[in-house]
Fold each of these.
Amino acid sequence: MPNHSSCRLVCSTSLLFATFYFVQAHIKHLSISFYFNMEFHKFRIRSYEGQSDRAQVENLERKCEVAELDNELVGVIQGSIKVVTVQGHPPKDLAKVGYVLGLRVSQNHRRKGIGSSLVTTLEEWFISNDVDYAYMATEKENHASTNLFINKFHYTKFRTPSILVNPVNHHSFKFSSNIEISRLKIEQAESLYRRFMGSTEFFPNDIGNILKNKLSLGTWMAYYKDDINIGPNGQIPKSWAMLSVWNSGEIFKLKLGKVPFCCLLYTKSWCLIDKIFPCLKLPTLPDFYNPFGFYFMYGVYHEGPFSGKLVRALCQFVHNMAKENKDEKVKIIVTEVGGRDELNHHIPHWKLLSCPEDLWCIKALKNEGLSINTFHELTKTSPTRALFVDPREV
Ligand SMILES: CC(C)(COP(=O)(O)OP(=O)(O)OC[C@H]1O[C@@H](n2cnc3c(N)ncnc32)[C@H](O)[C@@H]1OP(=O)(O)O)[C@@H](O)C(=O)NCCC(=O)NCCS
């Protein structure tokens, strides 16, 4: 099995098979693993088939509204498996985790057990692949989802990272001429990540695959030009910061649906002021009513007394890069950091667009003593600890 694999299941009104397949890094289908029949009242669960299901799944995800016709998709779920850092997990602080994402059931078919059936099937796939823990993320106000996972499937609240969102506006940022930003080679980035973030919770053991993925646009490091620690042999500067950028817009585009009139008015008038008085360099709220892409900044790390300013400079650098990318219509830059992490202060974001508490829940899938002990440690420790958020799961 590859070190990061995933599957997508759909529930339809009249199909017969459940098929699982492995996908590497969300891009490449590796193999069909196995088939089985599963009858669920009048519904059937089967695997996702890229070409034929795509439009229906997009429709389901967009509005969660699908008409009740034969062969209609009525539910979908995705899952991925990988090895990550979990402190205290034997033997080497590494655990196999399964991530649950994209659970959707069409509105007309809810409360009939379809969501539960999809979760059960995905958990069975995890268990058959020797997964230690299943985890998922949701908004804490999503009562249907929290009831389903916490009350019915016994997941435990575990972390509450913040999703920070910054709009891309028309103006480029200029940062101090004393700051140098240089692009790292994939091998350099991997080595720095393993050295400095290897013990961060949920750090993916296959970091190299993420960095090599075609959606990963690169890794950049910032430091002060006059830092006396930078030597010819590439020593680590005294203060430095790094981050990587993932082009999420290449997989899916976002769009605001119905918005309140006041919000529309606010955006339009703000844009107008910006056009009339460009010298004010107002941070504009972009047009979110047409499909747009976004960049996800991952692996944000900083060290040293003045490194906060370097994180800010890197974020501004990414902003300028997004502004230049006219093809992808990148309108926001997103990142996710451990709750109350000091990084929140250094990463530019709009509170209005951000989510202060994304709720992560976890469940131990093995009942052996060691796993259960680690699980208790994991759920007891401060929910504000730093987390590595995998861009493949965004
Ligand atoms: C969340 C969702 C997938 C549930 O699907 P479903 O097929 O209706 O779920 P089930 O019928 O299996 O319900 C299982 C349990 O979930 C909880 N639940 C489901 N819908 C609920 C609701 N509207 N309010 C409160 N609890 C709810 C209940 O505990 C329910 O058990 P019960 O029916 O015995 O009381 C569905 O509401 C949905 O697609 N929502 C929009 C997308 C979403 O929020 N996805 C989750 C992201 S993590």
Amino acid sequence: MPIRYSAKTLFSKAAWHAYNTYRKGVHYHSQLSQITELLNSSRESIEAFQRVRLAKLLRHAYHTTPYYRELLKTESPDISQIPPLEKRNIRDDLEHLCSESFTREHRIKNATGGSTGAPLTFYQDRGYWNQRNLSVYYFDRWAGWDLGDPQLVIWGAQADLKADEHWKHRLNNFWRNQYWLDGFHLTEETMQEAYDRMDKYHPQTILSYPSSLYQFAKFIYEKGLTPKWRLKGIISSAEMLHPHYRDLAEAVFDTKVYNRYGGREVGLIAMECTEGRMHINCRDTYLEIDSPNPYTQPGEILITQLNNYVMPFIRYRIGDIGILSDEVCPCGNALPILEDLLGRTTATFRTRTGMLVHGGYFTQQFYDIGDVNQFQIIQETLKHCVLKLVVNERWTDTTRRYLVQSIQNVLGGDVVVTVEFVDEIPLSASGKRQFTISKVTTGSDD
Ligand SMILES: [Zn+2]
């Protein structure tokens, strides 16, 4: 590797260190070594740590949030008896879910457009974010990443970056040593440009949505290109990693794809190891399967987030389906295993000009929209889309105009968008969540 890239990596490692230490107040090296020691220890040690964190969170929730004071009745309830936290509870009772021991200034607002089709606004605190980042640093190392190493990121650019935010985004990419390919709007030109840049940039890992990764791998394969750079691994996150996505990416990039499972509401939930098993992040979460036997019968995944004190998520029904394994993984890590995950799927839409639009673009338009409970967007043809909505009493026609405009902005101003109001969006026959569907195939097999 040419020397200037090593210098860039060293610079980036120093910048990451400074960022964590001075901006976030986190002594990254010591904390990461503590986390590593814990998560590499025995199952008993990890579960003992988790029990203490869980009891502390339940006490906090009972004593400081109106919602849980009413629901729990005691500071040490049997967790399996607590009614799950539904998305509608968060929409209807957001204020009561917030802890009285924090002021409003401590609340960091976050939102999900909902790849699960249900837009949601919620709060997290600084402590949550610090721990969430540390966990990402720990688990992404499984895929060969480390702070400061060059990384190709294929991810959704924010919808409407203002001029100064574009500048910030580029500065962040520079010091983080990341090259960003907009996964929301892939074209042959942007993929070719990214490919050419990588020959000089030599990324060690790729972080990507699986569907965007698949499109990029397919582009490289169909063009008959052979990447000259050697990857240590690929991190796939934020939606279902279908086997054919994985197979093509592993063949084209000649490396392993690691599936990372998480959600904006609760952070990193599980990560795949070298043996291809998903290990549950018991340091940050307490994961349950809503099923009579979670080892034999799949059920809805319930997540208790152990670090977010400003707004406790207890038995949160995240919208994915899973099943546990009681096996011990041969990789040597003792964290329990999520055997199978039936998660969120996101479609790729096509425009008449040949641009590929990631379904995440559409779900992002629902961030912070309070008058839609659920949605589903279906691309029927290149000229026609159907937007199905479950709305609530806050619904206004302004939202309708905004959503139609957002769809036309990327698919074309003359695309007809039919808005249908429905009572519910049913699950597909397989039980999968599909809130973005494209019937425009043009020979593609995804
Ligand atoms: Zn393992």
